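Sat 14:20. Reprocessing the chain from the morning session after the first attempt stalled halfway. Input below, unchanged.
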Amino acid sequence: MKSVIALVLPLLFSALSGQAEDKCQFNTNSVIKAASAAVRDKYVLADKADILSKQIAELADSAELEQYCNNTQTFSKKITDKIRKLSDDKHFYLEHVGDQDESNNWIEQWRIEAPKNNYGVKKIEILSGNIAYISLSSFHTFENAKPTLGAAFTLIQHSNGLILDLRNNGGGDENTAGAILESLIDTTKPLPFVIESRQKKIKPSRITTLPWPAYGTDRPLVILINDRSFSAAESVAFSLQQLGRAKIIGTASAGGAHMMDTPQSLPFGFEIGIPNSRPVSILTEGPINWEGNGVKPDIEANDLKSLEVALNIIKKQLNPQ
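Finished this time. Tokens:
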């Protein structure tokens, strides 16, 4: 009898294993190895790409992620978290974009929700002393956001100073960020950075004709940031700080300078976003960009105090003692 039991148990376990494999919607190893190869070929930091690629490949040998082979959302989140931790780069993401899974595509959801979020224009107000306040929650695609942003800049065009609130702004479209930046600087002077990839360095594209009144450089400007200001929002703050155009108030931003274009397709309907370029300051002093460390404020203040600090700074500039 014992020999019969000993014979049956391996067969039973084998059957159960086969059932588990049959339940898998996708092969986690195939997805991980394809992601590893894509990172090796495309990641902007060539000196780190090989090491990071090998570290990602090692995840395929771990049984930890195999348990999520029937849950695309959980697998995507787990592998995204691991790649971000390994790379210390918050721009990386992996997601599943199947025909039946479009609700999981956060970029598409961001675009769909843009109208009800006023294309990122959260609040506009004229404060005491004719000081304008604009809060931007996101930079939506330029063509879509242009009318709403145009209305905002038209409304504030006669103000005495401007507070631009980029706290909790997770970034978005670089063209929208560029247009906002151009509105606040001397457009005849170069921007303080170039865009660097593994192949080349190029000057950032400029918007030659603004679709709204330029705010110019003659009036005081303060930018508010916090640890949830990210990516393109940081780009605006960093550039204005480097150019000496604005005071930055708040806490250090999230530290995501790297940039991406089209996501890389992976097996089983997955795709991975890989940072493949970065801004690099052309100034001889200071950080080359804000990757990892964030934009450092000129004056530190928490979210409860930063607006009050900004108002006092502008009022002092308008009425020097």
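The domain at 118-258+277-318 is CATH 3.90.226.10 (2-enoyl-CoA Hydratase; Chain A, domain 1).
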